[in-house]
Amino acid sequence: MSTLSEAYRDHPLHLHQIIPLDFDSVRAVPDSHVWPESGELESNDHHWLSIPTIDLNDPDRAKLIGHACETWGVFQLTNHNIPLNLLNEVEFEIKRLFSLPARQKLKALRSPGGAIGYGIARISPFFNKYMWHEGFTIMGSPVDHAMQLWPNGYQRFCDVMEDYQKKMEELATTLIHLILQNISMSEEETKWLGSPGGSSTALQLNSYPNCPDPHRAMGLAPHTDTSLLTILHQSTISGLQIFKEGFGWVLVYPTNGALVVNIGDLLHILSNGRFISVLHRVIMKEPKQRFSVAFFYCPRTDFHVFPLGLSSGDEDDDHGQVPLYRSVSVAEYVGIKSKNLDKALSLIRI
Ligand SMILES: O=C(O)CCC(=O)C(=O)O
Ligand SMILES: [Fe+2]
C-alpha cells in the first residue's frame, strides 16, 4: 500500500519553499512576508457569529454533527474523551520543539520530496508572499527527526506524539461513523471504516511566532484541508478564522478543552457536496506566539473516493441524486491538490 508520504513524493519542492524565516532574528516584517490586503483582516471579522459547539455525549449527536457539517463544515467538540493532560503534554512538546534555535530545527528539515519534518506550509508555493508560520509534520513515529533535534531527549516527544495520534485516530473514526449516519449508505460502502490499515493520517504541528507587525502578516493563507476530516487543538491564543458563505470570516474562539473539527475535501466528495469543506485561514491577531496541532484523517491512499449513498430511484428528495464528482483515489487527489490547491475540487467535478 502506498502511504501519504509517498503520495507527496511526486511533487518535490525547492529549498526556498521549505526553510522558514529565522523569526527570532527579525525586528520588522520583511517585504517577503508583508501581505498587502492584510490591513482589512480584522475589520471583516464577525464577532457576533460563532461556530456550533457539540457535546459528544449528546443523544442527538449524529444529527447535530450532520447539521453542523451541512451548514458550517466545522464545529467545536466537547466531552471528546481526549484527556486534558495529554493535550497539555502535546502543547508542552510543541513549545519545546519550536523554541529550539533555528539552526537546530533545520536538522529536522523536510526533504524536497518529503512530507514529514520541519518547514514552511505546503500551500506556500501558491502565494506570492510568505506566511508567519513554521510547521512540523509527523506521520507515525517521529523518532528519526526527534533524534536529530534532541540526541539525548527525544523519547518523551515521540511517546506523546504517538499516543496523541492513536487517540485522535479513534476519535476520528467515531466521528466519521456519526457523520456517515446522515448519508444513507450500504454496509459495503462503509466497511473500510475503522478497519486495520483502513486510514492514512498525518499530524501537523503549527507555530505562529510573535510578529512585530501582526496586521501586515498572514499566519496561514486561506485553504481547505484535503482530509476527510481534521481535528484541531488550538492554544488559548486566537487567530483561526473560517469563511462562512454570506457572512465572511468568522473567528473560531479558543474554548478551553474543546477540539475544533472541520470537514475536508474528501468528505465533501463522499457526501456529493452536501458537507462543506470549509475554507479557513489563520490571522495574526494577538501579539503572542500561537500554537496549534491538526490531525488529518484520510482513507488509505489506494481507496477510491466518490459520492456515496446516491439512490438511483426517482424519490422526491433530489438532493445529490446525480454524482457531482468522479471517483478519485486518495493518492491521485493528493497529487491534484498539490498542483492546483483551490482548483482541485473543480478539476474532478463531472
Ligand atoms: O492553526 C490553525 O488554527 C489552523 C491550522 C490549519 O488549518 C492546518 O494545519 O491545516
Ligand atoms: Fe487547515
From TrEMBL:
PROSITE patterns: FE2OG_OXY. Its cofactor is L-ascorbate. Belongs to the iron/ascorbate-dependent oxidoreductase family. GA3OX subfamily. Gene3D superfamilies: B-lactam Antibiotic, Isopenicillin N Synthase, Chain (2.60.120.330). InterPro entries: DIOX_N (IPR026992), IPNS-like_FE2OG_OXY (IPR044861), IPNS-like_sf (IPR027443), Iron_ascorbate_oxido_reductase (IPR050231), Oxoglu/Fe-dep_dioxygenase_dom (IPR005123). Keywords: Dioxygenase, Iron, Metal-binding, Oxidoreductase. GO terms for biological process: gibberellin biosynthetic process. Residues 199-299 form the Fe2OG dioxygenase domain. SUPFAM superfamilies: Clavaminate synthase-like (SSF51197). The keyword Coiled coil does not apply. Pathway: Hormone biosynthesis; Plant hormone biosynthesis; gibberellin biosynthesis. Its EC number is 1.14.11.15. This is gibberellin 3beta-dioxygenase. One of its GO terms (molecular function) is gibberellin 3-beta-dioxygenase activity.
